[in-house]
Amino acid sequence: MKQPCIEATDLEKSFDDELVLKGVNLSVRTGELLAVMGPNGVGKSVLFSCLAGSEIPTHGSITVLDEPATDRSVTTSFLLQDALCLERLTGQENIRFYSQLHPMFTDDWQEYVEVLGLVDDLDKRVEQYSGGMKRKLELTIALSIDVPIYLLDEPTAALDLTVIQEVHRLLREKQDEGKTIVISSHSPMDADIADRIAFVADGRVVAMGEPDELFDAVPPVLETTGTNADALTGMAVGGQLFPSDGGVRAFSPPDEPIPTADMEAVTRLDRPTYTDLFNYYTIDIRDINK
Amino acid sequence: MIASMALGTGTFGAMYICLYIFGYQLAGDLEDRRYEAYRSMPPAPSADLSGRMLSGVVLAGVTFILTILAGVYTGASFGLRGLMSIPIVLLAFVVTCVFWMIVAMPVILYAQNERVAEYAVPMIAIVGYIGTGLNGVNTELSPIDGEILTYLPNALPTRLIIYHLVPGGDWADIGVAPPALPTGPEYVALLVVYGLLALAVGTVLTTRVLYRREWWP
After folding, report:
1. Residue numbers in A near B213 (CB within 8 A)
2. Total structural domains in chain A?
3. Average pLDDT over every residue of B16-44
4. Is residue A194 part of a domain?
5. Interface with A, mutate which of B24, B35, B40, B54 (most A CBs under 10 A)
6. Per the domain annotation, does A287 fall within a domain?
7. What is the pTM of this model?
8. Range name among A172-176, B22-26, B173-177 with the lowest pLDDT average
9. Which structural domain range is residue A183 located in?
10. CA of B61, closest CA in chain A: separation in Å?
11. Which residue among A92, A127, A260, B47 is buried most deeply as judged by most CB within 10 Å?
12. Distances (CA, A) of A128 to A123, A125, A246, B114
């Protein structure tokens, strides 16, 4: 097993009196692509800020390449949502600004603007950019910094599917160069490229592992139409249903056979999807597992 | 009189620009959460502060020179009292800029709002200018006692600059005196203290509050 390059132990972070991170334990292995997934507002961005050394934990410790996270500065590149770009500057000026600010900035930005389709917009002011264009510019800046670890907070948010695939290709290239990549996401597409996934809920890492391990631990998934939802509620773990395309889904108790009568309108699925995985690990997991 | 008025207005312009530019840029970076990114990057807090101050001093310098040129155009005449006048005038100008940029910092750090930076912070310069008799150029216009006025951080450098750039002035006639203009080295020393104090406060705020690091940059 590869050595961890980031270790977060009993990490707590509060703002005013609100505890956002409630004892996060996270270990990131050198060279892996780790996807941190969880619903909005569970503290993923705060966790990334702590890992990047940008926020000081209220309690607990973080080491990045054996140094406290707040001590080092040339080991990580941190993509923070909607915070990198200076709106009054053009895309080109933003790139020049960060190239002068960060000593590890490389000329790779020329390749990235080409791949991400940003070349024709570099002379426009960022305030004229759409959300997706801003994200492309932020990605260009973050990936152009040559460091061992990339912390990318929702790198594919607001991007179209074609661009997401290009971003995935770039991340795999980085990984092939030996870089460690940690991304946060809600998207199953991003989970698909991850070596491991960490699910965050209620300020904690509630599950972490390789996708196959995580899938194996998910109980059987049942699906039915919306009109038949009541029948599913009775047999669902915790009585919890999840919306799906045109119907509802639920997790079945793994060791309990489902009455045949109830099965008539219910389909038992062979393999859960990433969405099922997301629901299982992030929504009331403790109740579901009872 | 036109010369001293031009210098008073030029110093006011420098104060205004420093408060506005420094405050507005800082507020924008805070409001857009850009310091979360900067804190994860290598540049030292002192480099950040120095860069912001340098740009403020350059822009304030342009404003000051333009005001002086306007003064010359309308009939003001300037001169140097001696060779030492050059470093003293430069010092007085830089300290003015540094001091007022640092004055903007706590307000911006508290408000973290571009609108406050745009409208409220420059008001500090206007209140200071009017409240001190146009930066100590016309002491009779100020409710503050003239002796105290001389030591204030906006009036002191302005009156020093006037002393060194308007050598033939009849001070009482043009309203700059009484009190006597700050001619001795103790006033320059006080100016240096103001500058060092401002730099110390700026360094601590940048390092501790903006970059959340230990005491030393």
Report:
1. 70
2. 2
3. 92
4. yes
5. B40
6. no
7. 0.87
8. B173-177
9. 4-214
10. 23
11. A92
12. 11, 6, 38, 19
